[in-house]
Each structure stands twice: as C-alpha cells, then as structure tokens.
Amino acid sequence: MANMECPICKKRVLFVGVHDDEGNYHGLMGCEYENAPWSGLSYALHHDGWGDCPLCTDGAYSAMGGMLFDTAEDAISSLLQPNEWVSVEERRPKYNIREDGELVSSKILCYCETDKTVHLAVSRKFYTARKGEIVHPVFRYYDEWGDEIEDVSHWMPLPAAPDKGNNVPIKAPNEPLTLEQLREMDGQPVYCGDRKEWGIIHIDPDGPWANVPFFRGVYCDLDVQHNGPTLYAYPPAHIDREAWKSCKLCEKYKVFQFNAWEKPEMSLGNIDCMGTSLFCPHCGRPLTEQAWDELEKRLRGM
Q: Reduced to 3 DSSP states, what percent helix, strand and coil does the chain have, rounded to the nearest 5?
C-alpha cells in the first residue's frame, strides 16, 4: 500500500503498521506476523520523518497517538475528514459481509470521471480467478438502478445526521428545501423525509427537463417539481414514540388538569385551553398529539 498524506505536513509519509495486542510493532501489512499472529493482531498508523512534523511524536515505528485498531481499514478511516473525497487508488470503502456471503459497502457517493457526475452508489468486492491463478480482489460500483458505474476515481461516505461533534448544531433549523434551493444543488446529497433515504439531486442542463431538479434514490428517480417529495439537507428531528414508555403516573392517570397559575411548575409551561397539561408532570412525556409536535419543533430549534 502506498503511503498516505499527512493532514498536517501534507507529505505522503503515513503508513499502516502491523502490531500485536500489546502494541509491539511487527512490520508492514503483508508481513509474516500478519499472516500467522501468535499474540493478537492489531493495526496502527505510523508517521515517517522524525522531527519534520508534530504528528511524528515517537519515531516511525511507534503507533501514532498510541492508538491500535482492529483492522487496517479502521486505522485508515480515522484520517478521513467529514465530506472529504477519497481516491480509490488510496483506499476503498469498508465492506460488510451479508448473509449470502457477498461483500457490500454501505451507501456512498462516488465520482465518475467519464460523465463527471456524482452518483449515489454501493460498492461490491469480488474475488475471482481461474484455476492456478493468484486471487486478486475486484472492486465494482453500482448506481441506484443496479447498473455498474465505470471509471470511478473518488468516493465519499454519506454525511451523518447532525450532532454535537460534526459541525452542525443539533438544534439548527432544518426546513424542507425549496425548489429554488434545490436548483442550486446539482450533484449534492439530500434526505427524503417521505421515503426515509438519502439521494442525489440531478439537474439536466438542457432539453425538456432543463433546470428541473430530480431526486435520485436507490430505487427511485422523482421529478421534484411535479411529484413534490419533501427533501432536507439532513434527516429531520424525529422522536421514537414507542421507545419513550409511560411512567407509572401518566400510565395510570392519562390526563392531568390543574390551574397553571396555582402550580406553574407542574405544567412545564404547556397547558391547553381546558387547563389540561400537554406533558406528564413527572417524566415529561408528551400526552397529546399537539405535545409530540411541539417537542419535535423544539428539537429542530423552531
């Protein structure tokens, strides 16, 4: 495997080393120990060039940050920044073994050099060889219709839902994207609230469908202007109502009525016109459809 680029010094001096579970270095990938480990098998990132970069803290044969990984793919993935394209020459997506034995990646974005287009895709890894030949892995990419995408040069994981650690405030407004906004998002990923899946916005530059955004998911190709799917920049806030179980108090009484001006602390600031609490005064669980809607609005920062 070729050396990878360091995010600090920008030199191709990073490589993956093979370790035992105690952290002892045994060599590069493909070494004798990796093929026959006797004290556990781990991987770590290494930085060549002592004294040239602050990330090279303890020599080329010491694990960066003292961190060990279960697989080489996990070690390499730790370098990937959010929304960063990865060359297929440098690294492939992580593959999961399905029940039928096939090695398939999660949904990813990939860039095709032939049509200069970003596709929503999955990648598959095959091992094929005729008798007597050395087996080498073959990587292929397939679009939402199952057609193979050739000449893929780069790929990227789909963005995660907003959280504290990924630069998107969890309470950021997340209104459905307008048609005007979607017309400026050709080739970008969006989330379809109706179908509960990610897809790519595709816009033809000319012809009868010029300037009309299409949502291309794994099994659909929807004209946004006429079919009207609800699209978001990321998944909207949603509360799993089945997972939020009733406490003993609200399970027994169901309805709580009182004068809010007498016990304002009990109402959580929300009562209807009949003096009925919208939330359980003990566990805070919403008690009405209106209360569930109100709580989801709060999570969206509205």
A: 15, 30, 60
Note the pLDDT of residue 75: 82
Alpha carbons 157 and 184: distance in angstroms, whole number = 22
Instruction: Tell me the C-alpha distance between 286 and 224, whole Å.
Output: 34
Backbone angles phi, psi at 173, to 5 degrees: -55, 140
pLDDT given for residue 19 in this prediction = 92
Burial (Cβ within 10 Å: 0-12, 13-18, ≥19) of residue 75? buried
Alpha helices in 195-302 (DSSP H): 224-227, 248-253, 289-299
Q: Are strands 42-47 and 12-19 parallel, antiparallel or unpaired?
A: antiparallel
Confidence at residue 152, expressed as pLDDT on a 0 to 100 scale? 92
- Residue-wise pLDDT tens digits, 126-181: 876 555 555 677 889 998 788 899 999 998 887 665 555 555 444 445 678 888 88
pLDDT of the residue at 39:
86
Distance CA 194, CA 220 (A): 12
Amino acid code (one letter) for 130:
R
Burial class from Cβ neighbours inside 10 Å (0-12, 13-18, 19+) for residue 132 reads exposed
**Hey, is 154 helix, strand or coil?**
strand
Q: How do 103-105 and 108-112 pair as beta strands? A: unpaired
User: What CA–CA distance (Å, rounded) separates 121 from 93?
Assistant: 11
Domain boundaries, the chain: 4-77, 86-157, 159-236, 248-299
Is residue 124 within 8 A of residue 103, CB to CB? The reply is yes
Q: How far is residue 149's CA from residue 93's CA, in Å, rounded to a whole number?
A: 15
**CA–centroid distance for 188 within its chain:** 14
Q: Tokens 């950021």 label which residue?
A: 172
- Among 70, 66, 60, 56, which residue's Cα sits nearest to residue 28? 60
Cα separation, 202 vs 128, whole angstroms: 34
